[in-house]
Amino acid sequence: MACAEWSPYIGQTGAERVPGNDRPMLLKRLASSAAALLLGLTGCAGVGVETPPPGAVPGPALWEVADEDTTIYLFGTVHALPQGKNWFDGRIEQAFAASEELVTEIDLAQATASAQSLAGAAQLPEGQTLRGLMAPDKRQAFEASLVSLGLPVEALDRVEPWFAGMTLSYLPLARRGYETQSGVELALAGRAGEAKKRGALETIEQQIALFDTMPMEAQLAFLDEVVTAMPESANSLDAMVADWLEGDAAGLAKLLNAELDNPALYQRLLTDRNANWAEWIDRRLEQPGTVFVAVGAGHLAGAGSVQDQLRKRGIKARGWLFGTIHALPEGTRWRTPEFEQALADAEVLVVEIANLADSQAAASAFAAVARSPGLPPLLARVEPAAKAELIRALGRAGMTERDFATTESWAAALQIANAAGSGDSANGVDRALLTSGLPVTGLESFAAQFALFDRLPEPAQAELLEQAAADTSPEEEGALARAWLTGDLAALVQTTDRGLADPELRRVLLTGRNRAWAGRIAAMIEQGRYPLVAVGAGHMLGGEGLPALLAAQGYKVSRLQ
């Protein structure tokens, strides 16, 4: 069956109608691997992802917030890196090149002034010393940390605790080879040159005030946390950078939560600022253009992240569409970082049939509608020119005409196609997804899907039978699998059009189902269920595909790669 051979792709949809605001918006996670075909929803069997090309590796996570005339990329940075870290991959380069403006936490042109302002604001009043503010046990640990760095114990006596904490946070990293000159922000600024406008989310004075206005007790608590973490700080940052380079936002969030476990500090340094930045992004969406926002990666991971704050403002990542293939040769690799991230972010898996692995239920539903008495012989149901091919197909499948004496033509077509196919439905994408652990919602039941075929008029059923009898070579099947894996839309459209050339077949098996599914999918999106919709890739294609239907309803549906 052509339906069983349609290929995959993955995508994301998510324009929400915000109360009081008629613009559709989308916050979508941009996949990090270079190969997958990302877009929207499909039918007949799912959406899929291609395998990455040889040598492809994941990269730092990149998000996008968009409405009809504005695109804002969100890129999590690392302020200091060892030399030679390669992170500026094709995705980031493309988004950066498309952006007219680079926005960072502070104005990078004032970095030198920032350092001077920090040092000036950090001075303690005359007559006070840092060590004099500390409890004896805390002072002893603090002095030991200075000695471990080769510094005299009085080296930071004249500065406030917050500045001492920042200094002790950085010095072990500098010894490990981390340099701000190799950091992401300065690299982006260099690439931007004079061509891009510059913007900042905060002023130097605001950043300094975050620390300088903290109560002394909170400053000392911050310094204590830094001192306690110092022995493992370089190793912790190594792990964070590794997660960052892999685009592992969840892993990064876990490490950050372990590093900053003081709720008040977390609220002050991350959550509150993230809320302010989300407000800035929401306002910026009112102006057309493309903006590249680069902020510390910790602001784009974990509870209270910028993304969380955007969701509270009604700007949400609402769903993903993944075109699947029902049967694959054993060992076919199709999972990519793009798909894994979508799966991790989704809250519900939406498939054609929720209990697909229940063979007994499938057999029972099939048997209920597949047979009728008084049918003509199978060979008499096809055109004379197709009889020879049908005889050969029966032979390849190890069947005879007598096996189908009471079997309706559509059911015979499915059985012959399944017997003749080289792929194994046990290796199909649909079945693999059902083991993901996500709650599963089905768009159809076995009974409803078989009823679609059963209601076809006899000429359309005979067309299915003739298609099933046609000899598909291993080369053709291999080409189809490659088209699915590489997201070759032209090849997929050609296969779908050839398999559903009959207008009635196309209406019943493809376009009619797309219209029904689009309504249900839109309802799940509006309910904030974060669905990963995995259905046959043929449902993704053309003006009557699910992406087009959802776009017509006002949703932004984007092919991510």
Low-confidence stretches: 1-57
Mean pLDDT, rounded to whole units?
Answer: 80
Distance from first to last alpha carbon: 28 Å
Radius of gyration: 29 Å
- Taken from the alpha-carbon principal axes, the silhouette is elongated
- The total strand number stands at 13
In DSSP terms (H or I, runs of 4 or more residues), the helix count works out at 22
Strand composition percent: 5-15%
Structural class, by secondary structure, is alpha/beta
Overview features:
disordered N terminus; 561 residues; elongated; seven-stranded mixed β-sheet; 12% strand; alpha/beta; 22 helices; 48% helix; six-stranded mixed β-sheet
Structural features, described:
This protein is α/β, with parallel strands linked by helices and 561 residues long. Helix content is 48%, strand content 12%. It has helices spanning 2-5, 90-98, 111-121, 136-148, 161-175, 184-192, 204-212, 216-246, 249-259, 263-284, 306-312, 337-345, 359-370, 384-396, 409-420, 429-433, 446-454, 458-469, 474-486, 489-499, 503-526, 546-552; strands spanning 10-13, 16-17, 24-30, 62-66, 70-77, 101-104, 197-200, 289-296, 319-324, 348-353, 440-444, 531-536, 557-558. The chain has a seven-stranded mixed beta sheet with strand order 2-3-4-5-8-6-7. It is elongated, with a radius of gyration of 29 Å. Residues 1-57 have low confidence and may be disordered.
